[in-house]
Amino acid sequence: MSKVYFTDFRTSLNENVPQKLLRLIKKAGIEDIDFNKKFAAIKIHFGEPGNLAFLRPNFAKVVADEVKALGGNPFLTDCNTLYVGRRKNALEHLESAQENGFSPLSTGCQMIIADGLKGTDETYVKISGENIKHIKEAKIGTAVMDADIVISLNHFKGHESAGFGGAIKNIGMGCGSRAGKMEMHYSGKPVVKTKYCVRCRMCFKNCAFGAISFPAPEKKAEINQDKCVGCGRCIGSCNFDAISPKNDSSNLLLNEKMAEYSLAVLQNRPSFHINIINNVSPYCDCHAENDAAIVPDIGMLAFFDPVALDMACADLVNKATPIPNSALGESKRDLHDHFKNIFPDTDWMSCLTHAEKIGVGEIKYELVQI
Q1: Cβ contacts of residue 331 below 8 Å, gap of 6+?
Q2: What is the pTM (predicted TM-score) of this model?
Q3: Could you tell me if 228 and 256 lie in one domain?
Q4: Which residues form a coiled coil (predicted)?
Q5: How far is CA 104 from CA 63, 66, 88, 266, 282, in A?
């Protein structure tokens, strides 16, 4: 049974929140990892501009400083988004991070967008096992796979498709390249929004499979779904947001694919995971609007097992009293689950159950409060 270490946000004259986080991660065993001269990817969500629920850079600085103190070379990282927003390419992504306060000065380390300028810099990672159901070869941002050690620093909050977003969501979905995110969210077949197409033909030039054509001089792009392999390069190459994925995957499939992508990221190297339960917004930090928190701030948790960590966080949130003036407080449902009360079509437990089956971690845990 995994021991998940927990501390609340109460402070004293002798210890503030960053100092308490440092004590937590030390107690949870981060010093047992050999960081000497090794690259450590700290996977974080920089937050969509307009969202104010994302983790402050102060949390990242605690982790980066500790990695450096242990002889490692840390960097903050995330992959580009699949949807149209201000983090869909590396330039806008870094500008968004800086706008939200992330910089080498505020965090103590550099920032790298793991899947490159247009979300196409990816490494194919094979996974196998009798319980693997969906993914044979995951598409992960190259900088994440180049790292020797992975640390996930996660804002624990609700999510409209996964139920909640924690360690597995940040690792699995967050480390997928644009094609990887397509594979998890959708069947991987993009479509053309013809009203935005300007016939620049960049999608045609970047398609290696002959799936894109312009059937007549005046016609706009068309994608042959039989030839398309779902690599996502047409989405990255279109500067006019005229190509988008087709939404045809269930939340159950999303959760199971996310678990399998997490295995691809974490297998065969050390990892450590930290969940911060504050500003628990009902939606992902990808939303430019974060909405009011659904429960009061709870605390910080850390351990080597991301499955146990997410399970402990889900239990703590479900035990918390809903805030009246919030999506949860105003919900009329009584499904005995705060996340399902907001998003009844989600099934967050399916992700943890599948992650346990394929060896990412275990659901049972012992909560150790410090």
Answers
A1: 322, 341, 342
A2: 0.90
A3: no
A4: none
A5: 13, 15, 22, 26, 30
Number of independent structural domains in the chain: 2
Q: pLDDT tens digit string along 84-139?
A: 789 999 999 999 999 999 999 999 999 999 999 999 999 999 999 999 999 999 99
Lowest-confidence pick of 92-101, 193-202, 247-256, 348-357: 247-256
At residue 273, φ and ψ (nearest 5 deg) are -135, 140
In a shared domain, residues 308 and 162: yes
Using a 10 angstrom Cβ sphere, with 0-12 exposed, 13-18 middle and 19 or more buried, the burial of residue 357 is: middle
State whether the Cα torsion 144-149-155-157 is positive or negative: positive
Both tokens assigned to 333: 């449902």
Distances 251 to 107, 138, 174, 256 between C-alpha atoms, Å: 34, 19, 16, 9
Closest CA to 71 of 21, 31, 125: 31
27 and 77 together in one domain: yes
Give backbone dihedrals phi and psi of 150, rounded to 5 degrees, phi first: -115, 130
Q: With bands split at pLDDT 50, 70 and 90, how would you rate the model's confidence at 22?
A: very high
CATH number assigned to the domain comprising residue 63: 3.40.50.11440
260 and 353 in a single domain? The answer is yes
Has residue 10 got a pLDDT over 90? yes
Residues 6+ apart with CB under 8 A from 53: 47, 155, 157, 279, 281, 285, 290, 293
Question: Where do the DSSP E strands lie in 261-333?
Answer: 271-277, 299-303
Locate 32 and state its tokens. 């047992």
What is the rounded distance in angstroms from the CA atom of residue 223 to the CA atom of residue 241?
A: 15
Domain at 195, CATH number? 3.30.70.20
Take residue 44 and report the two structure tokens written for it: 């974080």
Do residues 217 and 331 both lie within one domain? no
